[in-house]
Structures are given as C-alpha cells and as structure tokens.
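A sample copied in:

***
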Amino acid sequence: MITPQITSKAGEKISLKLVCEGRLERQVTVKAGENIKTIIFRHLPRKVNKVKKLFLNGKTATLDTEISNPGMLIIT
C-alpha cells in the first residue's frame, strides 16, 4: 500500500477525501494537535474494495490496493 505522509502543524485542519470509482465515499477533516499517525475509514460500503484515489489537503495520492478488511481502510 502506498501511504501518504500525514503530518501537520498544531491546530491545522487536515482534509482527507476517499474517492472510489469517481464517487466521494468518505471525507474526513481533523484538527491536528500533534502529528497524525493513523486515520481509519470505517463503515465503508462493501463494494469499495479497490481504492484508486485519496486526496490529502488537496494533493492526490494514488492507491492501487485491495482493502483487506472489508469496510475499513487504515492509512498510517
């Protein structure tokens, strides 16, 4: 799995969008106090097993991966 680096300044807002088959499946915005090590997307639809694009603060990270645990994607 290609994992985007998730680091931030204190108080900065991090926007993370998960796009699958052209549809926005989940969007997570977190306010960072410390560096964020892991973001977990839970309760994804079962059909989302191939993730193609992930947007981190507007930058694109392309993932070619199968989600091993259905319904959950962990980005470290």
